[in-house]
Amino acid sequence: MAIFTLQHDLQQNSEQNNPFCIILGFFGYGTDGLQNYSYLLTAVYQYISVVYPNKIIWRTIKSQFCLVIVIWIVCILYSLPLLVTGQIIYNIDNQICQIPLRLSLPMVYVAAIIYIIPNSGILAVYIKLTRYVHQISSRAISNHTLFHARRELKLVQRTFILIPRILGNTDTLQICHDIENAISYESQVFYLYDPRYYDDIHHYSISSTNFSVCSVEPGTTNDLAIIVIPRILGNTDTLQICHDIENAISYESQVFYLYDPRYYNDIHHYSISSTNFSVCSVEPGTTNDLAIIMKIIGKNRVPFGIKSGGHSLNPGFSSTKDVHISMLRFSQVNYNPTDQTVDVGPGLVWNDVYKQLQPFNVSVLGGRVSNVGVGGFLLGGGYGWKSNQYGLSIDTILEYELVTPNGTIINVNNKTYPDLFFGLKGGLNNFGIVTNFKMRALPQTLVYGGVLLYDFLEINNILNAAVNFQHNNQDPKAQILCDFTSLGGSVAINIIAFYDAPIAPPNTFDIFTSIGHLGKLQTRSFLSLVQASPVVITENMRKPGVEKVRDLFIEYTLASIPYGRTLVNFDVEPFLPSYFEKSQGGAYPHSPSNPLFPIVVQFGWQSELDDQVFINATQTVAEAILEAAIQDGQDLSGSKEILYPNYALDNTPLIKMYGKNLDRLKSIRQQWDPENVMYLTGGFKF
Ligand SMILES: Cc1cc2nc3c(=O)[nH]c(=O)nc-3n(C[C@H](O)[C@H](O)[C@H](O)COP(=O)(O)OP(=O)(O)OC[C@H]3O[C@@H](n4cnc5c(N)ncnc54)[C@H](O)[C@@H]3O)c2cc1C
After folding, report:
1. Which of 140, 495, 554, 606 has the fewest CB atoms within 10 Å, i.e. is most exposed?
2. What is the distance in A from the centroid of ligand 1 to the CA of 371?
3. Ligand 1 near 531 CB (within 6 A)
4. Closest C-alpha to ligand 1, atom 33
5. Residue 434 Cβ contacting ligand 1 at under 6 Å
6. Fold of the domain built from segment(s) 216-326
7. Do 216-326 and 447-649 show the same overall fold?
8. pLDDT band per the 50, 70, 90 thresholds, residue 131
9. Is the CB of 270 under 6 A from ligand 1?
10. How far apart (Å, rounded) are the C-alpha atoms in residues 562 and 489?
11. Distance CA 201, CA 212 (A)
């Protein structure tokens, strides 16, 4: 069809009813129907595989092949009347042969056969499958069966949504027409009936292809930037605000748009579901410029995102569709030997911080994984390798440089603004944007440690060793992280051991090295020892709790196999019971009387269809571990069960993270942000 249209164009052919063109039109109707009936066939197949899993005959290649042949025959047969009665004629505007686009019997016939019948069939399957999944959810069946049924339901739902979306999305269609009218002759818009549309949407992998309402081929940067992008993103007002920011800031700051590679670097996140395409990204280079930006944002009440290292796993916490602020240019690491402090910028990841401090033999209490960002980590709490010795990162922060929601620059410490200082220690982005953290410099020698890898069969021995370590270790310099990971069904069990001196005292980690393993513990730089990852809390590591972690890990590793390349990652992070003794207080409650420690429960998956399945799984696992801890006799009632904000899912109630501090935090926020400017950005809000 593409070749035909092109030839027609090149030859400036005005011949109206070329037989070849009519045959192409005939096949066009046949293939349209073929597509919809194959969706119907897929939906029926999915229904049978869930409701009648034992009817294998349906799944054989022979039966599937027969059904495909039947559909082909039906689709050719129903298009024949259009051909023989001469309904397919040349449409000069669209440059293809089709039946005239007006209310007529052939048009109704085509609509019914090609669209209404197969789509009604898919709808019927969808309703039946929904009812079935609803029924089995209330029955006691294996997790695997329920996972499978829900997944198939989502696939049918997606199929059902696809076709009306393309055909029925009149708002978007109007936007496509607007774009068509606005762009220059160098750019073009294509729709479903144009072969160039298929060329535009085609991807290397079919799963990456989506049927859009139209496809746009901008031919000039101007068309792309000025007209197409804001319309696609639905937001010309925000584009104007981006321009206002651009005009107001100094040369040390910059604004980037979709066509600039630096834009993609700014909006990139560790987890793809946390990335949003904003209208522009802004890289403030000075605190003054950031203050100007905050004033423009507040005045226009435009949604914005603040990103440091982009490791938040909650979608929308550090991203936006409007004005994205990347803190990248606040990349200072200044060691002050006189008062033994370090000024650290939120534009860095921990790797950079440790690297720059290494020559001075000092470090700060930061992240255990190199690419986690300074900003989010420090504003949420901060569990690090030195937490047994110095508490959380927030216990080592002495001062914050802050741009408040109304664009004022202030230095916040215990003396200048004690309430705000309290709020910033765990209160995330509720009080403004931090441009500098003044932290305690901590002495740093070489360290001892590394990663030990174990065979899955050693899982019980490792758990026993970890429980023994937790009970017997009294040395605050020794810390471990017990990591269970399965990626696409392949399981790895690791112990990451850390000792904050060049050599660990004899026997410190023998309990782990005596079990068959790969890898070795050795003297190395602090920088080279990194690894870790989100979410429940138990009081102390006891065997029943840890056994529950093991059982759940095995159960969910098996249950995730049908979902393709998935990640199941549980980390047990034992600290010394005394690790909160260094607590300096703050928004995130972490008092010595309540020394809870975090367990990371993390799932990674590929298809957005499975989002809810894995979010539910995370919650179920968290609740099951908590239940096991309570059954084991741990007192986790009421405000004692404090969840860590940096690991918590986005629907976690504030009271579960901030307990008795919540009322005070709400009143501090009200005092500093009466206009609710920080409500315009993502994250937990007081
Ligand atoms: C692989 C991995 C390993 C991890 N390991 C640990 C660990 O060992 N210990 C631990 O405690 N946590 C750990 N975490 C959790 C981590 O602390 C949080 O994900 C944290 O939010 C990451 O910070 P970020 O700057 O990279 O995130 P971002 O996504 O950039 O930001 C997170 C939040 O902070 C806000 N924010 C960022 N910068 C600023 C600023 N300057 N001013 C105001 N608000 C700001 C953002 O708006 C957003 O709401 C880990 C997470 C991952 C994914």
Report:
1. 140
2. 10
3. no
4. 376
5. yes
6. 3.30.43
7. no
8. confident
9. yes
10. 10
11. 8
> Ligand 1 pocket: which of 377, 390, 580 to mutate (most atoms <8 Å of CB)?
377
Check pLDDT > 80 for residue 182: no
Query: What is the rounded CA–CA span in Å between residue 403 and residue 424?
Result: 12
CA torsion angle 52 55 58 61 (round to 10): 130
Residue pLDDT, tens place only, 339-359? 999 999 999 999 899 999 999
What pLDDT score was predicted for residue 275?
86
Q: Which sequence spans correspond to the domains of the chain?
A: 2-168, 216-326, 333-444+669-680, 447-649
CATH match of 333-444+669-680 with 3.30.465.10: yes
Domain 447-649 has CATH 3.40.462.20: yes
Ligand 1 midpoint to CA 367 (Å): 9
Q: What is the ipTM score, two decimals?
A: 0.99
| pLDDT for position 205 | 62
Class of CATH domain 2-168: mainly alpha
Record the tokens describing residue 95, joined without a space.
């440059």
Smallest CA separation from ligand 1 atom 9, residue = 383
Q: How far is the CA of 228 from the centre of ligand 1 (A)?
A: 33
pLDDT value for 535: 31
- Say if CB 425 and CB 394 are below 8 A apart: yes
Ligand 1 atom 38 nearest Cα: 375
Q: d(Cα 503, Cα 70) in Å, to the nearest integer?
A: 74
